[in-house]
Design brief:
Length: 717
């Protein structure tokens, strides 16, 4: 059996274990994502872990400031997503220098074929996956090809150093890592020029929701940096991380970094979407090996935590005295430089070495804390005893606690397969009137989030459905069935179902959605605006249908930056600041509904933001996000029981003036420009097209846009 066949079989074993772990953590991962979406990175971590992280990062920054030559990362802006071929900043470039493409060595002057990634963790030791080199002999005849990367002049071939497994090789199948020696001279160049990436055992170096940056040689090609849309979504006690950073075949053995460019994991497995135990292909069919890895529908990635890897190294033994000495030296290099510099595991106030400092030791998870106890006193008194190196977690004993009442929050229907979505034949019981969804021409399909079949993915909810713009991470359009009948509404305040809570849609990647921490929370006065209004969707034949329909509007897929005075029909009910103001969308719908005759209570509404190329953008630390200034809506009602009785009212609302005047952090309502327009005008603005049935029913067909000073000026009623 060839070395590559060995690697593929070993990779299957590692991947199967990763898939099992991923599946077992489905509920925990969804919980983490919801907390992160609402409150930002770190919200899914314990308070103690957040505090430990904060103190350690303070020390890291302080040490960086006083000893700038030390290889510590600092926080800085990372570029927009695409795996990039050029380092996004100088620290990323330095972090990438010790990262090598693993190749079959064919001697100088011949460009080798790459098959995996590895990186130096000591002056002459390279770390990669066990499934890359499952046996010592698999590393024979291989080399580490450094600096194989793109430049302004083209692709640099770099320099290759032969691996030396006879001198040192150690591996662990369960944690899927292997460490192998590297020869120190090649083509008159020294391996020491490449530097190294330290295995630092200290935790935490990263919080859930923060970026996981990966430097890799995907598919054996030049070095790439995956540095955006790459959230950490779960931390497993067994020693693994789950994250959303994109990787490809050949990325096995890549280093995974925090936003501070500290090593947090060894990447080892992509996790494919599964159905009945079989892998799913990108087109929704069952995948087979002859399709190749690029046809697999990947949903996440898994890496081995550095702290767990070091813990395992401490427990390993080598019968070869020479190898044992090398292993001992490697373990000795895994201490935390921050702790060593400040003489403590963590500190509230840290000062540079040699200066006066006040230090308060906090709980850490390093292996050398056995037997050390700490006591924290506050509303909750907790005694913490640090665990021995082989213990799973510290022992926590809670003595007293303050009881806090938890407010009820809205509930979501957990069965996402049981949502019927939008019904185009909803307007009449005889189902003779058709209100089709928007048409999506080929020119815009590339901007839309695709499903397994490659077509735009239509996400179905209770009473409505929508399609996402993958580039803007916002809704492209939605279609909702509305029934205003009091018999299908429940009396009471909007909080009767519980307090509002926005959540991600678990059917699509987190990177395809904009969360609270990305934009809405730091933007201040920008509101989380529904496109499908909860007031419109909150109807049904029983309480459960009404409750779940209300909740479904609180998915981030249905959210865009708006002001509450824009989104609600009577904003003064919830905030006295807006007393007397009339919300735009609500006013349109209410006025049209009040004109209905013969007890008609139904409407079909198509709507969405106008996602223009020249929309403004803002960056609150997680990358530039464009926000729309215009929104469109088409309200469809029936004036009889045949298709000829359909009427469609189109509107565009423009908030450019108020945003330009006050900015998104001092947004004020009341200066929106509102227009009644033809469906053709909406199509020209959005790139969408509308069925001829709607064009025929358009009350503004062939007419120029009309600015509305009052909703009563609306044409067609």
């Amino acid at each position: 059996m060839s070395r590559l066949e060995d690697m593929r079989l070993a990779r299957k074993e590692a991947q199967a274990a990763a898939v099992a772990r991923f599946k077992a953590r489905t509920d925990e991962r969804a919980h983490n994502k919801a907390l992160i979406a609402e409150n930002g990175p770190g919200a899914a971590d314990s308070k103690e872990r957040q505090e430990n992280y904060r103190r350690r990062i303070e020390g890291l920054r302080s040490l960086r400031a006083t000893a700038p030559k030390l290889p510590f990362g600092i926080e800085r802006k990372i570029g927009p997503w695409d795996p990039v071929l050029v380092a996004p900043n100088e620290i990323a470039r330095k972090a990438g220098k010790p990262v090598a493409r693993l190749v079959e060595y064919r001697g100088p002057g011949i460009e080798p074929e790459g098959f995996a990634t590895g990186f130096l963790v000591a002056p002459d030791l390279l770390l990669t996956n066990w499934h890359v080199f499952p046996h010592r002999s698999n590393a024979n005849g291989c080399a580490a090809n450094f600096l194989y990367e793109k430049s302004e002049l083209g692709t640099q071939i770099g320099v290759s150093f032969e691996l030396d497994p006879g001198r040192f090789y150690i591996s662990d199948e369960k944690l899927d890592f292997a460490i192998v020696a590297v020869r120190q001279i090649a083509a008159d160049r020294a391996l020491s020029e490449m530097g190294q990436i330290a295995l630092i055992e200290a935790v935490p170096k990263i919080l859930k929701g923060e970026a996981v940056n990966i430097i890799q040689y995907p598919e054996g090609g030049p070095k790439q940096y995956a540095v955006a849309q790459n959230r950490l979504v779960d931390i497993l006690d067994e020693g693994f991380l789950h994250y959303e950073t994109d990787t490809l075949e050949g990325s096995s053995g890549s280093p995974a970094f925090s936003s501070n460019w500290e090593l947090v994991a060894l990447h080892h497995a992509g996790i494919p979407q599964m159905r009945d135990g079989q892998v799913i292909a990108t087109d929704g069919t069952l995948w087979s090996e002859d399709m190749g890895d690029d046809r697999v529908k990947w949903v996440a990635n898994e890496g081995i935590r550095v702290s767990e890897l070091v813990r395992r190294l401490r427990a390993m033994k080598s019968e070869n005295p020479f190898e044992a000495e090398i292993l001992k030296s490697l373990i000795a290099s895994t201490g935390d430089p921050v702790a060593e510099a400040f003489g403590a595991i963590g500190a509230t106030e840290m000062s540079p070495i040699g200066q006066a400092q006040r230090t308060r030791t906090i709980v850490g998870e390093t292996a050398d804390m056995s037997g050390v106890s700490f006591t924290f006193t506050g509303p909750v008194t907790i005694n913490v005893t640090a665990a021995a190196p082989d213990a799973a977690e510290p022992v926590v004993e809670e003595k007293t606690a303050t009881v806090i009442a938890v407010e009820k929050s809205i509930r979501f229907d957990p069965d996402y397969d049981n949502r019927d979505g939008y019904d185009p034949l909803f307007l009449q019981d005889n189902r003779r009137i058709n209100v089709p969804i928007p048409l999506m021409p080929d020119e815009i399909r590339g901007d839309l989030l695709p499903g397994d079949d490659g077509a735009p993915l239509i996400l179905k909810y209770h009473h409505f459905e929508l399609v996402m713009n993958k580039k803007r991470r916002l809704q492209a359009w939605s279609a909702v069935n509305v029934d205003y009948s009091t018999s299908r509404k429940k009396e009471g305040e909007r909080n009767m179902w519980g307090s509002d809570r926005w959540i991600p849609d678990p059917r699509i990647p987190a990177k395809a959605q904009i969360f609270d921490a990305d934009f809405y929370k730091p933007a201040g006065n920008i509101d989380r605006g529904h496109i499908v209004r909860r007031e419109d969707n909150e109807w049904g034949d029983d309480d459960a249908e009404m409750e779940y329909a209300n909740s479904d509007t609180f998915h981030w897929t249905n959210c865009t930056p708006q002001h509450e005075a824009f989104n609600q029909s009577a904003p003064g009910r919830n905030d006295k600041t807006y007393t007397g103001m009339e919300g735009i969308w609500g006013a349109f719908e209410n006025h049209i509904q009040q004109s209905r005759k013969n007890g008609d209570t139904r409407a079909c509404i198509l709507s969405g933001p106008i996602l223009a190329e020249n929309d403004p953008s803002a960056n609150f630390g997680l990358g530039d996000i464009k926000y729309p200034l215009r929104f469109w809506k088409i309200i469809c009602v029936a004036e009889g029981d045949t298709q000829d009785d359909l009427k469609a009212f189109g509107f565009i609302l423009n908030q450019s003036d108020v945003v330009q005047r006050f900015g998104i952090e001092r947004f004020r309502p009341g200066r929106f420009k509102k227009y009644q327009v033809s469906l053709e005008a909406i199509g020209n603005a959005t790139g969408l097209r509308f069925d001829q049935l709607l064009l025929t029913a358009d009350t503004m067909r062939g007419q120029p846009a009309t600015e509305l000073a009052d909703v009563r000026d609306m044409r067609g009623l």
